[in-house]
């Protein structure tokens, strides 16, 4: 998901997103929208943070200066976004003849906007968009103003959406559903609470590691780049713990998080593993209060243990341990992982996330309902989850 | 050149090139051209190598299968391409109403094609395209089949062209002049002569290092990525010396060379330095037989010495030495550089390139006629060149 499923013998790379990065980059968004001929936008956003950090007002000012009208607003998109909110957005966009979407927020706002983009022209319920054949061909162009770096949704063509009632969280990658322009102003992030900062850093690290898991060791360039991304995220994570308002550290995390899932980090790595994400999606489908990054961080070492011992990835993770942490063997790498998470005040066990061992079979079933990767059985998945307790 | 001139506080990233990478990727080129509505292409190419390695025949087969007509061929584009050949191409493309260009070759073929692309619609001599205001707005779409990895021209919007008579070699970056689709089949490169392989590896390393020179040390993500690219190029360079037909090593070099100058390696690095390239351009303007990578490799340590001592880049190059070669201090890094070049049978002095000390003032003048970077005087440039003897 969100990565070319290629190898050194066959990969396609294509990412047409225009990034405007840096201080006050949001001031350009109105011109980017207007110059492409769009006059009527629907704004999508989360809760109060876009109002507090200035991203909303800067966006509005830029739209006004370029005579772009806000015809509707879809507010209060939550973390782990839910399909009902997107249904609301589809209705709003249609009723108000929106010509484009301006997403102001983090991954959940942008993911919801991508579903909305396709749903607006889909003759059916937006939940069924991923199963449309052929894929939905018409879409509302998406512009984004990023306020939390983590998912890289600002520079890829995927989204994740859940249905609380069905306890289902599903990822979908549409070939053309890239944002047209994304503005990344790291200064919006200097005031982020620490736990959100860490969750973003961990999400980006896990994206890199899920992709890294697709290696057989011959992909020297991809592996070197991914180890570089991981070192930068670790270094900047430690830096931000001491100095959370440091603009440069925020900017380095932002760029690394975008690169972690915009196609570059996964190039030639066979699409990666994604087992960590699949299990985490089940956790937040059961309890939407579980932060995505929190679940991922807890599960990562358990997955490494399992991939190293059951699907032959020991050498790959030994290399990771050596090149990212300077330690010998994947087990020492896992220890370094847990140590950093503890230093950062991040949970490291399923118990800390509020889960009980009795729930393991149910979680494993939810994972395999969506699809067990690596030919795993629900029992294999259950064994991974058990390791994380 | 070829890189966003941005920093962590303000950068734009945009690269819409679609890459088709891997074995037999060339077989897709006809469909990529035809599906965009183009029926008449002009082929651009170098000498016999495209005929020998199969890239020409595969391209022709793919065009035929998709009913795309070859209306003209511009053959024998040399290394360090010259403007007269492009003038020929402009004439051919116009006379035959070419709708697109298919470049089959390495950087010089693709660079010439980019000049041709703009020249075909420019009301004046193609040599003057870089000085057109506003920039030339109409262009022939470019498709490429890459046969030598080095310049990254297959995935950027720049070209370098020279005028032998004027002894001028000029780089130009047009905002929209990206190839539409590039096919990279590393198997075309498994039979490359060793000196061409090394020149490509060194060119990619120097691109990364020119960009790296723009750092002030705060750009953790960019620096980690660039160090990763450099390590991969060094490792794969050594690997290819022992095993030149190894497909995976060729593929890793190919991907690293593309990344070295497609905008990623330079993101946030203020456009880099480009002093090495500017001096090398003067060398090959004087003697077109000097291979681009050969000149760069010789000049690199002299430039590092000068940037470290005269423009405050000591810490940056100390970091490079440590993270790429595991040695202390930039001087030890320069020694590692020279040692690798000697191992690879690459020249390491200006004398080996055929230059004499008496030519230093003339070379320095040519450099500064195009434009001295870093506020250097011709005397500073002369001092750098002297160090390379
Ligand atoms: Fe994620
Ligand atoms: Fe070069």
Automatic annotation (TrEMBL), chains A, B:
GO terms for cellular component: cytosol. InterPro entries: ADH_Fe/GldA (IPR001670), ADH_Fe_C (IPR056798), BDH-like (IPR044731). Residues 16-186 form the Alcohol dehydrogenase iron-type/glycerol dehydrogenase GldA domain. One of its GO terms (molecular function) is alcohol dehydrogenase (NADP+) activity. Keywords: Oxidoreductase. Residues 197-386 form the Fe-containing alcohol dehydrogenase-like C-terminal domain. SUPFAM superfamilies: Dehydroquinate synthase-like. This is Iron-containing alcohol dehydrogenase. It comes from Carpediemonas membranifera.
């Amino acid at each position: 998901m969100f990565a070319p499923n290629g190898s050194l013998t066959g990969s396609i790379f294509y990412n047409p997103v225009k990034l405007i990065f840096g201080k006050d980059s949001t001031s350009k968004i109105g011109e980017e929208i207007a110059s492409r001929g769009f006059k009527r936008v629907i704004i999508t956003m989360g809760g109060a943070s876009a109002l507090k950090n200035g991203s909303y007002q800067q966006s509005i000012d830029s739209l006004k200066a370029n005579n772009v009208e806000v015809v509707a607003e879809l507010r209060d998109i939550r973390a782990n976004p839910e399909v009902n909110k997107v249904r609301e957005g589809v209705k709003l966009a249609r009723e108000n003849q929106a010509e484009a979407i301006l997403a102001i927020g983090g991954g959940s706002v942008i993911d919801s906007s991508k579903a909305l983009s396709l749903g607006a022209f889909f003759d059916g319920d937006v939940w069924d968009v991923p199963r449309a054949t052929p894929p939905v061909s018409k879409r509302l162009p998406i512009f984004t103003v990023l306020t939390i770096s983590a998912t890289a949704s600002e520079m890829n063509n995927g989204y994740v959406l859940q249905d609380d009632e069905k306890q289902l969280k599903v990822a979908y990658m549409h070939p053309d559903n890239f944002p047209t322009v994304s503005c990344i102003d790291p200064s919006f992030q200097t005031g982020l609470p620490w736990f959100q900062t860490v969750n973003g850093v961990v999400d980006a690290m896990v994206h890199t590691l899920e992709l890294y898991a697709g290696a057989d060791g011959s992909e020297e360039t991809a592996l070197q780049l991914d180890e570089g991304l991981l070192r930068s995220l670790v270094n900047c994570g430690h830096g931000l713990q001491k100095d959370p308002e440091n603009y440069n550290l925020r900017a380095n995390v932002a760029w690394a998080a975008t690169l972690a899932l915009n196609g570059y980090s996964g190039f030639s790595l066979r699409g990666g593993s994604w087992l960590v994400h699949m299990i985490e999606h089940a956790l937040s489908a059961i309890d939407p209060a579980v932060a995505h990054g929190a679940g991922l961080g807890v599960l990562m070492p358990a997955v490494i243990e399992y991939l190293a011992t059951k699907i032959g990835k020991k050498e790959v993770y030994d290399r990771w341990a050596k090149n990212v942490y300077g330690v010998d063997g994947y087990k020492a790498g896992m220890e370094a992982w847990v140590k950093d998470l503890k230093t950062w005040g991040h949970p490291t066990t399923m118990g800390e996330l509020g889960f009980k061992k009795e729930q393991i079979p149910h979680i494993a079933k939810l994972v395999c309902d969506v699809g067990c990767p690596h030919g795993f059985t629900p029992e294999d998945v259950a064994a991974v989850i058990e390791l994380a307790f």
